[in-house]
Amino acid sequence: MSHLKRKAYKKLLVPLQLELVNMARWLRHTNQRALVLVEGRDTAGKGGVIQAIASHLNPRQCRVVALPTPNDRESTQWYFQRYVAHLPAAGELVLMDRSWYNRAGVERVMGYCTDAQYDAFLEQAPRFEQLLVDDGILLFKYWLCVDQAEQEQRFAERQEDPLKGWKLSPVDLQSRSKYEDYTAARERMLEVTHTPDAPWTLVDFNDQKRGRLSLIRNLLDRLPDTAV
């Protein structure tokens, strides 16, 4: 299937964005809290889909969270602690561009955590998320899927395009040769953290435009009637 053309994409996106505006109004009216985790490989398209969701929403109500590497103090804290401060309050939508699942992905593959820390994360993550859901947070976990050939093409484009070069970090370049390692880490993560109350949704992002439309449609369909 060929990639969706920009004009066709925009025509399909606008009605979804109108529904997102209604969703945000519903969140505010009902004091609901929504948290969307957007995860995936490097170059998968996390930032693009977050922008598509947030671009027409009130920034006071819709927050995008993309945390940097933990500082020295944060590194001594309980692993989930620095994420707690960014959880949604009443009426808010929070979109996390990567999340606590860094520990199950890049930290595991690149050796940034110990085996004990990794094992503790896999044991604690479902319990942590159960607490969020039990407290009423609407939790959505998305993994953006991209195959190795498409990822390699996107890496090459970022290296060649000076307007996209900022997207490449030293870690991205080191990770480039570890596709299979990331696959194994992802499969283990899904096995342990895909639970009835906090399931993962995998979305094909080999065509980023189609992927954005699919993810947004899925998000909207999983919410109750948002008419207010």
TrEMBL record:
SUPFAM superfamilies linked to this entry: P-loop containing nucleoside triphosphate hydrolases
Alphabetical UniProt keywords: Kinase, Transferase
Domain Polyphosphate kinase-2-related residue range list: 4-225
A Pfam family this chain is assigned to: PPK2
Source organism, top-level taxon: Bacteria
EC primary class: transferase
A GO BP annotation: phosphorus metabolic process
MF terms (GO), sorted A to Z: polyphosphate kinase activity
The keyword Transferase is annotated on this UniProt entry: yes
Documented EC number(s): 2.7.4.-
The protein's role, per its UniProt record: Uses inorganic polyphosphate (polyP) as a donor to convert GDP to GTP or ADP to ATP.
Subunit structure, as described in the record: Homotetramer.
Similarity-based family: Belongs to the polyphosphate kinase 2 (PPK2) family. Class I subfamily.
PANTHER family recorded: ADP-POLYPHOSPHATE PHOSPHOTRANSFERASE, POLYPHOSPHATE:AMP PHOSPHOTRANSFERASE-RELATED
Protein's name according to its UniProt entry: ADP/GDP-polyphosphate phosphotransferase
Organism in which the protein naturally occurs: Xanthomonas perforans
Gene designation: ppk2
